[in-house]
């Protein structure tokens, strides 16, 4: 339904980058008015933290807490882990955005390289 990348300058930790990406995706889904969403990610740690009801005490706890608040906006939500091969489109978007200074959002389309993967 939509694709995007949001550059984050100064983020050198993949764990934090994965959490930020999830937060941006959830925010975009809210902005687009989606009521039912599936969150899939290949960072097992981030997915487990989102699935847990326990308080998070990791370095990404502020991001996890923000996502938990945001997901309350949806009528239906599933959060699941997918292996890296199943998340190839997201990795392609990350590669496209890594050296960009401005965000990019596609609605009902994506870049040609992401379309080929999907």
TrEMBL record:
* Highest taxon listed in the record's lineage: Eukaryota
Q: Which InterPro entries match?
A: RNase_H-like_dom_plant (IPR044730), RNase_H-like_EbsB-rel (IPR052929), RNaseH-like_sf (IPR012337), RNaseH_domain (IPR002156), RNaseH_sf (IPR036397)
Location of the RNase H type-1 domain: 9-96
Under SUPFAM superfamilies, the record lists: Ribonuclease H-like
- The residue stretches assigned to a coiled coil in this entry are none
Q: Kindly list the residue ranges recorded as spanning the membrane.
A: none
Q: Which Pfam families match?
A: RVT_3 (PF13456)
PANTHER family from the entry? BNAC02G40300D PROTEIN, RNASE H TYPE-1 DOMAIN-CONTAINING PROTEIN
Q: This chain belongs to which protein, by name? A: RNase H type-1 domain-containing protein
Q: Which organism does this sequence originate in?
A: Hibiscus sabdariffa
């Amino acid at each position: 339904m939509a694709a995007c990348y949001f550059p984050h300058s100064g983020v050198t930790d993949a764990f934090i980058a994965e959490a930020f990406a999830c937060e941006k995706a959830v925010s975009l889904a809210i902005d687009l008015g989606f009521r039912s969403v599936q969150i899939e990610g290949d960072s097992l740690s981030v997915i487990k933290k989102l699935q847990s009801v326990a308080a998070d005490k990791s370095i990404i706890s502020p991001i996890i807490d923000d996502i938990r608040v945001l997901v309350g906006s949806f009528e239906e939500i599933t959060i699941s882990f997918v292996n890296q091969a199943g998340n190839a489109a997201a990795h392609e978007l990350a590669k496209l955005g890594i050296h960009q200074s401005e965000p990019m959002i596609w609605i009902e389309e994506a870049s040609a390289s992401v379309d080929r993967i999907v």
